Amino acid sequence: MPPSPSELAYVPFVSVENMMGLVHQIGIEKVLCDLADAIEADFKRWELFDKTPRVASHSAVGVIELMPTSDGEMYGFKYVNGHPKNTKEGLQTVTAFGLLADVDTGYPKLLSEMTLLTALRTAASSAMAARHLAPKGARIMAMIGNGAQSEFQCLAFKAICGIDTVRLYDIDPSATARCAANLKRHGLKVVSCTSGQEAMEGAEIITTCTADKQNATILTDNMVGSGVHINAIGGDCPGKTELHRDILLRSEIFVEYPPQTRIEGEIQPLEDDHPVTELWEVISGKAKGRTDAKQITLFDSVGFAIEDFSALRYVLTAIKGTSWFSNLDMVADPDDPRDLFGMFERANQ
Fold first, then answer.
1. Could you tell me which residues come within 8 angstroms of residue 59 by beta carbon, excluding any fewer than 6 positions away?
2. Which of 63, 109, 211, 214 has fewest C-beta within 10 Å?
3. Which residues, other chains included, contact 298 with Cβ-Cβ below 8 Å and sequence gap of 6+?
């Protein structure tokens, strides 16, 4: 009879089913607030982390990426894809999974789905940035692009920034209808709009989140007045943007990691030396955020590995003492660490 796996062989795995159960048990708005706090705490120790632009493999129909980082104690990475054409085939645009490992031993400590978790952490990151950059007392947000990320964004801005009204627009009216229906029971005033211009009426925060892999102009310069905060999350790979260049030139621009954002973000059309402020510097008090009520602030968010690291660490803590994970026999653990083949042979006896 083959030997049973030891405790060292097992790695906690959070499936999609268990992730949903965990979030429902805690409460989605509480999870979004907790994630925002976890991400902000890690941004305050930004300088401790390994930082590199994500490793991307582009094709004509999408992109597959690896996003690694480490704080010197834990190592984490996320695998994620982005395939806008997938929805027409009944598939998700984005799927993801991630892993945390102990730097001292290299042993994995957590394997988790990250399709749902990425949606949660992206929304939490957006709202975390907005609480440093958005106009004080902002209550109305325009949500341009009502795809899979939109409800998470709306709930994060409600829970973290106090938004009470969302104005929705998508070129696909059925997407807007679905988003409005999903938000109906979550305490927000939801206004469905028939154009981007209509959605912008009265909005103090503008979130753009469209999926087409192209240089598109979702917001034109005349649509954006003074004193707003723009949360631009749709531009996230080379050749994919949402904002007219003139909006960028009127805005104070805040980014996660400039070497990655200049390749993938809204600032692709600008000169390489165009001034931007790193968000971690604002959070740490090393740079200023919004300084003027009439200022346009722009968070050019492409998603960065440290945000995923924070989310995975949060999940690792949150599952302790719960049943929202399963143990995977994932690490070979022979009685003698030099006798891996002997363990293999005994499994056949």
1. none
2. 214
3. 229, 230, 232, 243, 247, 248, 251, 252, 253, 254, 266
Question: For the CA atoms of 36, 40, 43, 45, what is the dihedral angle to 10 degrees?
Answer: -130
3-state secondary structure of 210: coil
Tokens of 46: 């930004």
Provide the token pair at 43: 């941004």
Q: What percent of the chain has pLDDT over 70?
A: 97
**Residue 215: pLDDT over 70:** no
User: By three-state DSSP, how is residue 297 classified?
Assistant: strand
User: What does the mean pLDDT of the chain come to?
Assistant: 93
State in Å, rounded, how far the first CA of the chain is from the last one: 6
The residue with tokens 């929805």 is: 87
**What does the angle CA 15 – CA 20 – CA 26 come to, to the nearest 5 degrees?**
125
Q: Is the pTM of this model over 0.90?
A: yes
DSSP letter (8 states) at residue 86: G
Q: What is the pLDDT of residues 97-106, one digit of tens each?
A: 999 999 999 9
Q: For the chain, give me the number of helices (H) and strands (E)?
A: 11, 17
Q: How far is residue 91 from each of residues 88, 94, 152, 331, measured CA to CA in Å? A: 7, 9, 19, 31
Joined tokens for residue 293: 């009520």
Structure token pair of residue 41:
């705490």
Q: What is the largest CA-CA distance in the chain?
A: 76
Contact 93, 82 (CB under 8 A): yes
Least confident range from 33-47, 195-209, 238-252, 310-324: namely: 238-252
Instruction: Report, in this order, helix, strand and coil percent for the chain, each rounded to 5.
Output: 35, 25, 40
Site of tokens 């003698």: 336
Q: Are residues 249 and 221 in contact, defined by beta-carbon separation less than 8 angstroms?
A: no
